[in-house]
Amino acid sequence: MIKSEEARRLFDHLTTAVLMFDRELRLVAINTSGEDLLSVSARHVVGLKAQEIWPDAPMFTGTLERSSATQEPLIERGMHLQLALGKAVTVDYTVTPVNDEEAPMELLVELINADVRRRIAREEALITQHEAVRALVRGMAHEIKNPLGGLRGAAQLLGRELNNAALAEYTRIIIGEADRLQRLVDRMLAPHSLPKKRSVNIHEVLEYLCSLVEAEITAEVRIVRDYDPSLPELQADREQLIQALLNIMRNAVEAVGASGEITLRTRPERQITIGQKRYKLVIRLDVIDNGPGIPPEIEHGIFYPMVTGRANGTGLGLPIAQMLIQLHGGLIEFDSQPGETVFTVWLPLERENG
Q1: Topology (CATH) of 197-354
Q2: Does residue 237 register a pLDDT over 70?
Q3: Phi-psi bin for 191: left (phi > 0), alpha (psi -120 to 50), beta?
Q4: Which pairing describes strands 88-100 and 74-82: parallel, antiparallel, or unpaired?
Q5: Contact at 8 Å (CB) between 36 and 113?
Q6: What's the pTM value of the predicted model, to 2 decimals?
Q7: Backbone angles phi, psi at 245, to 5 degrees
Q8: Which burial class, exposed, middle or buried, applies to 159 when counting CB atoms under 10 A from its CB (0-12, 13-18, 19+)?
Q9: Where in the chain is the domain with CATH 3.30.450.20?
Q10: 29 strand-pairing partners
Q11: Contact of 61 with 21, CB cutoff 8 Å
């Protein structure tokens, strides 16, 4: 047992989840990190046996019994625990017998959230791709500048020749979009490609994107808005943000085909780590489609250039989107299965902690 107030305070300040069991496998102590990880209250579980707390995890009880019998530490990985309110967690854990001459033998259990560990490893892999993608995009930006200038010039000349105001409006749209792309290309070629940030309302950006996409889709494709109106404005480069999110939304449109549903969902999330930086508050934007899902053979490489599941695809949309979001300190992740693909965009709302 934890015998002093100072020891108890240190126990509760550990960031690792720690539990202690007696020889009868009754829980005698759990720290604050353990309560958070396992979604339990010490008041309700201390005194209960391990099998009473987690009846669906006999492997855990068996590991405690073996460690107690052999007096040897044991390590297990990938234990799935069913928690309250339908939640679940996968953990790696170490069981260590603790022998004290003045107290009965106890078992010290250290738990690590394996889901978080996998997420961090996945994030690091995505961030590693960033520099390779950025170098490719900068090379392509050089190649884009000349034809883009020619396109704009031709639209200007055509606009001067047209007497029909409605047709002339189309040339103004072409010129406006060419100018937007030119500014984007210039940013990509600028030193470090730093975004020019200002206050941006994420929902205003999404509504603008919806107006673009809805002009391209059929009546059988539905866009569902699931916005959290409490979200504050974020500091972002509006044009870079539009380009990144438009690439993701157009992928969703391609996925659902002639009929389907695309959902845009925004939520605030607290205490989120992106790469090596921890943020108090971030925006989580989910772009969800009910298409067939991403082919398994390309899942691990979809943020690399030229990787695409479409015959006429370039494989550049997602790498560019990832690069632009990372320039904002954020990250794009995805989860895909037949009938539901979710691209999650994390955007920090403030500077990182520490």
Answers
A1: Heat Shock Protein 90 (3.30.565)
A2: yes
A3: beta
A4: antiparallel
A5: no
A6: 0.57
A7: -70, -30
A8: middle
A9: 5-113
A10: 20
A11: no
Whole-number pLDDT of residue 348: 94
Contact 82, 56 (CB under 8 A): yes
For residues 204 and 202, what is the distance between their CA atoms, to the nearest angstrom?
6
101-131 pLDDT, tens digit per residue, is 666 778 999 998 877 666 666 666 666 666 6
Question: What is the per-residue DSSP string for 127-189?
Answer: HHHHHHHHHHHHHHHHHHHHHHHHHHHHHHHHHHH---HHHHHHHHHHHHHHHHHHHHHHHHH
HEC string of 287-334 equals EEECCCCCCHHHHHHCCCCCCCCCCCCCCCHHHHHHHHHHCCCCEEEE
Least confident piece of the model among 26-40, 123-137, 149-163: 123-137
- E-strand ranges in 201-322 read 221-226, 234-236, 260-274, 277-289
Helices and strands, number each (H, E), in the chain:
10, 12
- What residue spans in the chain does CATH classification 3.30.565.10 cover? 197-354
Between the alpha carbon of residue 222 and those of residues 214, 289, 345, the distances in Å are: 9, 10, 21
What topology is assigned to 5-113 in CATH? Answer: Beta-Lactamase (3.30.450)
Strand partners, 337: 340
Ramachandran angles phi, psi of 194, nearest 5° = -70, 135
Q: How far is CA 255 from CA 83, 250, 262, 301, 333, in A?
A: 34, 9, 10, 17, 17
The continuous run of DSSP H or E covering 33 comes out as: helix 32-38
